[in-house]
Design brief:
heterodimer, A: mainly alpha, B: mainly alpha, 10 helices, about 0% strand
Chain lengths: ~90, ~260
Amino acid sequence: MTGRYLSRTLRLLIVISLGLMIAGIADLVLSGSDFLIKTGIFLLVFTPSAGLLIICVFSKVEGKKWEFLLSLLLLLFLIFNFLSAYFF
Amino acid sequence: MAYYLCRMPDFLLIFLISFLAGMLGSLLGIGGGVLIAPGLIIFAHLPVRTAVGTSLLGVTATSVTAAGIYIKRKMTDLKLALIMETTTIPGAALSAFLAARVPSRSISAILGFVLLYVAINMLKKSPAASDKSTPENRKNIIPAVLASFSAGFLSGLVGIGGGVLKTPILHFIVGLPFKEAAATSVFMVGLTSSTGAVHYMARGDVNYAVAAVVILGVIGGAYAGTRIIKRAAPPHLKKIFSLVLALMAIKLFLEVLK
């Protein structure tokens, strides 16, 4: 179940990100605005974290203790990494 | 915000290089940054730091695209990826801390020899690595975890992506078939590259217009790679991987001689 939902989430987010990127290039050429490209790139960069969140939630539901602990540890690291990059 | 937009032929070249990098990245379980970063420096005329930041976004896109498909095909060992990634990250963090105190030229030379050794071994038929996937052929997890820590440490010191070391560790030490090793490695690479990409974005060391072209290219290439891997024979993939490792070893040796 974890793999199925993880795969669906990753593919959905990459398709949305791809759409934003294509629209963003058109927007940049036509109006000079990079808002859509930036939104697409932010979505892309946080997709691995979203994947970890999916693993964390579904491994808890399925009672897979080790997967849950490891994914939680990595997720906490990624959150700390984001905070340290932008705020510290 | 005004961007430096390079000429159309250069954008097409960047797209083609990114497509190739995405394809190799998803086929071999490496990020593809080894191709993207030099391509951006030469053709988009980006400063080194901006090229690296932009290429990390491309590596993340390669990983996410390929991982989504490989997980669906049940080629990725998620538990193993999580275990190994938990030790790679402290290795990379330690290398960032020690980078100024360790002689990076000698580390580059050592890593160059390691990559050459792995490249030669990849061409031989390894008794440890079967091409059939069974839970029984997953072994040597503790040595693999230690090797993964060293991979994070060395790659952080020398500034190469971890994928070139992760795929051989998963194939030779753990005993995963080559395709599963590449699929598991590409999932891990995404976690590592997104960690670095956030720092480059926060510092403003990313050219978003060029990044959009790179991402479009690598997504196309990564998707093509996931189609090719279904039909490709593992010995052919190993030969391509050996070639990439040998080229990286030569690059490291040249840096030592500079």
